[in-house]
Each structure stands twice: as structure tokens, then as C-alpha cells.
Amino acid sequence: MHLDEATWQRLWSDPASARSMLDHVKEGCDVCDAFIASRPELDGEVDRLLMGLTPKSAPLDELGWRRLRARVLKAPKSSPVAWIALAAGLAVLASGTLLAVRGARQQTAPGLKGDGREYMPVVAARQTESGSFEQLPETGRVPRGSTLAFRVTSPVDGPARVFLQRGKELPEELAQLRVKSGSNQLEQESGLFGVNLEDEQGPVTVWVIAHDVPFDAGQALEAITSTSSPLSVGRVEVLVDP
Amino acid sequence: MNEGMKDPGGYIDAARRGEEAAYRALYERYRPGVVRLLEAFAALDFDEREDIVQDTFTRAFKSLGSLSTPASFEAWLYAIARNRAKTALSKRSTEDRTMAEFSTEALDAVPPFPDSLALEVDIAVVRDLIERLPEGPEKETVRLFYVDGQLSAREIAEKLGVGKSAITMRLERVRARVKRELTLRVLAGKV
């Protein structure tokens, strides 16, 4: 006689009645061992015990917590919006200047390729001290204090949100813009939109999230980390020299 | 805030009342364990693991009302995570679409966790069980994954120069041993 569904159910409701199986299972029975291994009821408890052996120390995953909070509780408050206008005169630059840097620094975020998200190419150009724009180097290294302008190839007409992420910190929302379908530079009402890196140092990622209908900051953050978001996502990575 | 959260009952009660700080404390306390559990699934990549972590906590938090024994929260959470991982892997399979869809549907439900399964087995029992394993690849794998707790199944496969599936199978064999030990204890009336 081997463990079966009926015996297994009795085991949990009235263990004493199934005690006759103890010696049999204890001696080692391949049939019963396979039956026990196939039962999911103890999976969680087994994992709890095994995880108890494992040292676990990790800082709070703030971005993950925000995503979860947006799903389970309410939508998170938007990060403080920080408009960073380009220096005077930049707004008059023709788009041709930026076209010259197309392909200069175009990165595909890990996880974007081949997943459900729509990848949105983004290129950046750096404003030089003379006010002109130049292509970013292949290394992505830029001097501190640089100002970047961006061109996106958007698959949609609609709202866009721009986030700045320092290293692996939580992305901070910088701006809410609009993009047109096709290739266009990021603009605000007063002209080109730019990101000033005066106070930055080390790896910085600028994320651009777009969609054809309005979306909130929580959905944008989710699009940054999730592979199943319907939003379009693009990013540029730079390394700001100290 | 949550140091020494031996019994998460208070936090679960607070979370059921909608207190955000309680949700956050539970997430902070139990996320590392869920991540570690998922790292045993060598076939999952980083993005898939992160999505499963989110799904696990979302389902758990939305189903807190169905958890009859708050002390079982951790085991219940791990059961959900394991189910979500299996669901993700079965969705990936295209060998038998019908079966995959069927099994996905079955696994998507939050697993019931009867009161009678709120076991009180000390971790020392498991530690002893592992110590009694014969020296060899299986014991080394278990040591690296559960005791040292630094490397993922993928990384252990690279370190030991074996296939990812071999590592997953070794870890599953040890889980089966622990499960058998638990069953024996229930049969013997020790829990």
C-alpha cells in the first residue's frame, strides 16, 4: 500500500489515522517518495525552511516598492518636476544640428530587446562651451556641467515623460512633454528641452517614455522596469566625469 | 522597522486595514527571500525574476484576506512565487500549447494554505538534513545556494562547469528530501 490522494488528505485532517504509513515511508519507497515530491502543499514550507539557511541582507528596492505600491495601493505621487532649460540661444538652433548627431549614442536598454515593449530610439547631443552641439563619444563620457539635447524616433503621437536616473537610484521625473510620431527633437514651450548635468557625477540615464494616451508617473516607472508595458521606452546613458 | 519580524501578524492586520507602512515593511522583509527562491530557477533571466517578484507581492497583498494563518505568510508567499515561476516557464513552452494554457490557468490561482500546514519545524532540522548528505556535487550545490547564499543557480552552473538544468535538478532533489522529512514528521505526529 502506498500513499495516495485519500491517505494524503487524511494526513492533514487526521494525522493519527494515517500513522500506519509511517514505517512504510520511513523505510524508503520510491512510489511514495515520488508522490510526496509531486504534492504542492508543502512547497511553501519547504522553501521557508531552506530560505532560513540563507543569509539575506538587501537594501529596500525603492523602485520595486514604488511599482508595487502603484499596483496594490494608490498611484504614487509624481516626483518633483525639474525643468532644466537650455542656455540662451540654444532654442534658435535648427534641427539640422541635431540631425548631425543621429546615431551618436543610441542605446538599447537591457530587457527591451525582444520583449513586449516598443523600443523608442533616442539620441543625445552635447552642447559645447561655444554653444554648438557635438556628437557624444562612443564611451558616453561627458564633462560635468554638460547640457544634453535629445532626438527621439517616436512610434506614437502623444504625451511623453522624461526621467533622470543616477546610477541605480530611483528615476526622477524631469519633464512632461509631447512627441510626434516619427523623428523629432524633445521640445518644451520655450524651445528645445535640455538636461543640465551640472550637479551630476558618474553614470546617468535619461529615460523617455511615450504613449498615444495620457499616462501617469507610476505607469512610466513601471514601463522602465517591466517587460510587458504597452508604453514606448527609450533611453540614453552617459558617464559624467567628476 | 521590521527587525526581528518573527510573526508578521501585526503587519498583516495593518496591511489589511490599508496601512501603507505595513505593506512596505512586509515587502522589505520578505523580498530578499522571494528573489533568492527565484534565483534557483536557472531558466529565468533577471527581468523575468523581477516581474515575478512584482506579481508575487501583488497577488499576495491583494489576497491577504484569504490567508487564515498570518504566521504562515512567509511560506504562503513562497508558494505563490514558486507558482508564478512555474507559470512563467510553462507559458514560455510551445511544445504543447493546450497543456501549457491549461496548467497556467491552474497555477495562476493563489494557492490555498490550510491551517493544518502551519508547521513548526525548526530550521535546525533542515540544516542537519543537509549536513547528513554525502559529500558530492549535490551537497556542494546546496551549500553554495542555500548556505553561502551568494550565487544564483546560473552562477553556480558556471562555477561548477555544469549545465543550468543540472543545478536546478540538484536543488529540486534536496527540496524533495526536505519535503519527505516534513511528511515523516507529520506522520509521526511531531508537528
Helix-strand blueprint:
The complex is a heterodimer of chains A (242) and B (191).
Chain A: H1 5-13, H2 22-27, H3 30-38, H4 43-51, H5 62-72, H6 95-99, E1 118-119, E2 122-127, E3 133-135, E4 141-142, E5 147-154, E6 158-166, E7 172-179, E8 182-185, E9 187-188, E10 191-192, E11 194-196, E12 202-210, H7 217-225, E13 232-240
Parallel strand pairs in A: 1-13, 4-13
Antiparallel strand pairs in A: 2-3, 2-5, 5-8, 5-11, 6-7, 6-12, 9-10, 12-13
Helix pairs in contact in A: 5-7
Chain B: H1 9-16, H2 20-38, H3 46-62, H4 73-92, H5 97-108, H6 123-131, H7 137-148, H8 153-160, H9 164-187
Report on the structure:
- The complex is a heterodimer of chains A (242) and B (191).
- Chain A is of the alpha+beta class.
- Chain A is 24% helix and 28% strand.
- Chain A contains seven helices and 13 strands.
- In chain A, the strands form three sheets. In chain A, strands 1, 4, 6, 7, 12 and 13 form a six-stranded mixed sheet that branches. In chain A, strands 2, 3, 5, 8 and 11 form a five-stranded antiparallel sheet that branches.
- In chain A, helix 5 crosses helix 7 (217-225).
- By secondary structure, chain B is mainly alpha-helical.
- Chain B folds into two domains: 1-113, Rna Polymerase Sigma Factor, Chain: A (Orthogonal Bundle); 119-191, Arc Repressor Mutant, subunit A, CATH 1.10.10.10.
- Helix content of chain B is 68%, strand content 0%.
- Chain B is globular, with a radius of gyration of 18 Å.
- Chains A and B meet through helix 1, helix 2, helix 3, helix 4 and helix 5 of A and helix 2, helix 3, helix 4, helix 6 and helix 7 of B.
Query: What do we call the CATH topology of the largest domain in chain B?
Result: Rna Polymerase Sigma Factor, Chain: A
In CATH, what is the homologous superfamily of the largest domain in chain B? RNA polymerase sigma factor, region 2, helix turn helix motif
- CATH T-level topology of the largest domain in chain A: Immunoglobulin-like
The major β-sheet of chain A equals: 6 strands, mixed
Q: By helix and strand content of chain B, what is the structural category?
A: mainly alpha
Instruction: Specify the number of helices of chain A.
Output: 7
Tell me what the CATH architecture of the largest domain in chain A is. Sandwich
The outline of chain B comes out as globular
Low-confidence stretches of chain A: 75-115
Assess the beta-strand content of chain B as a share of residues. Answer: under 5%
Radius of gyration of chain B: 18 Å
Mean pLDDT of chain A equals 75
Determine the fraction of residues in helical runs of chain A and give it as a percent range.
10-25%
- Runs of chain B in which pLDDT lies below 50 for 5 or more consecutive residues are 94-108
Domains of chain B (count): 2
